[in-house]
Please model this.
Amino acid sequence: MNLLAKVGWTALTLLLGAVLVGAASSPALAEGRGNSGVPSGPGNPMAKLQQEINGLTQRLTELAQLGQSVVGLQQKIDALQKQMTTLQQQTAAYAGLQQQVNTLNGQVNTLQQQTAAYAGLQQQINALNSQVATLQQQAAASAGLQQQQMHSPCTTPTGTRSAMWSVFRTTFRG
Model:
């Protein structure tokens, strides 16, 4: 049942209840026996009919209240359905965010691997720098040895040896 049908049913119930209340409050029925000439008491059909009308009026009032409760429940159901739709949308958004988090975690892992590789490269660079320093020291020592030989009385830079002497005299800087 949709909400419009329930509201229509409630309105019809209220209208019928109003008609019955109006009929029950008529002066002829209010006396319990009316102008029927039947004595009052349990044998009076008008009194019995009045009791039934009063009972039906009470039931119609209860039904009207239930109709209002049904309308209230339908409004609550509609609100819950809207909340469920919102939750489904948020779930989809969460799934998208989770995928982004997974992508970022993958990138972090890649960066950690690259950082570890960088540390290994840094060690190799340090080893190469050490080797360069050692070679510079050896070159400086060799140049010092060559210079001592040049100052000795038995060696003079002439001819092809003078070119070698100038090569040994070169200093290396790192």
Q: What stands out?
A: Helices lie at 3-24, 27-30, 45-151, 160-168. Residues 120-168 form one domain. DSSP finds four helices and no strands in the chain. Residues 27-33, 161-167 have pLDDT under 50 and may be disordered.
